Amino acid sequence: MSSSATADEQGGSGTVWSRRAASPDGGELAVSLALSDGRALVTAVGGMEWRCTWPLEQALHHACLAATSETWLDLSGLEFADSSLLHLLLDSQRVHRARDARLVLAGALQPVVERLFTVTGTAAFFVRTPL
């Protein structure tokens, strides 16, 4: 697996962190983390499968989230995801609830990703909101 990592701003409003991971089959996942008004926005774009989950995992466990009351997760640019996404989100949901914070799925999901939630019966486990 090849990967690249870049660090952006170190605080304040805007993007504070971003990472990319490439899987051996040519897919790529790009994840960014931005802060604004006490809320974190994590954005994932590309495809996510078990070999390239680490950028999203790192974003959802980033130290700056401890200072926020909400994390909005924008998966609208995710073109593919497997069960590793569900595992990661359910784990992150537990962590957020333990610190009395909300994990919110923001924006419309691509049909293939929406189907993952529907088929597994996990859609109701998450708060959803439009972007």
Automatic annotation (TrEMBL):
Domain annotation STAS: ranges: 29-131
Region annotation Disordered: where it falls in the sequence: 1-22
Pfam families, A to Z: STAS_2
Protein name (database record): STAS domain-containing protein
